[in-house]
Inverse folding.
């Protein structure tokens, strides 16, 4: 009759030990949870800090992407100039606008594209901004091409200019591939 009492006492003792073990594990897990929460807060703060240093327009355009965009623009100008040499004159006038567009407009999302395009248009599309840019481009055209002195040679000049630019890009692409 005493054996059942001992066994009940042993069972109670083992239960008490198990409860202590569970309580210790719970305390350990609570400490670990607190440490992990602090680490999460710290990482969130670091992420916020880094994000606050990023440009508003998204990631800056990489040099490779900018070069690729310039190549596509130049190819478009070349094709259109072979169709109509007057397009080359238009491209000279538009190149400064194209450059400012590429530097100002973000394509990180459709909303960013719309917002930054409208901001660029407000800043660069006004007559006050366009007049000096067009004047400088016309001055450059009139002093570096035969447009005023020998207008009949303008077609040949335009075709040579786009061919020279295309040839220069092919040389650059070959140099990049050999590196």
């Amino acid at each position: 009759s005493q054996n059942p009492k001992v066994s009940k006492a042993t069972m109670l003792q083992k239960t008490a030990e198990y409860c202590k073990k569970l309580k210790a594990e719970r305390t350990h897990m609570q400490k670990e949870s607190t440490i992990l929460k602090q680490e999460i807060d710290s990482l969130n703060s670091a992420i916020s800090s880094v994000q606050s240093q990023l440009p508003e327009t998204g990631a800056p355009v990489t040099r490779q992407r900018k070069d690729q965009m310039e190549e596509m623009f130049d190819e478009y100008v070349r094709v259109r100039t072979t169709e109509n040499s007057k397009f080359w004159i238009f491209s000279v006038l538009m190149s400064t606008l194209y450059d400012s567009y590429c530097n100002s407009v973000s394509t990180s999302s459709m909303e960013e594209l719309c917002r930054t395009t409208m901001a660029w248009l407000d800043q660069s599309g006004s007559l006050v901004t366009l007049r000096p840019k067009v004047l400088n481009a016309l001055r450059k055209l009139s002093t570096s091409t035969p447009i005023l002195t020998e207008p009949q040679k303008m077609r040949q000049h335009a075709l040579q200019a786009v061919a020279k630019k295309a040839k220069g890009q092919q040389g650059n692409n070959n140099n990049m591939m050999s590196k």
Q: What stands out?
A: Residues 63-178 form one domain.
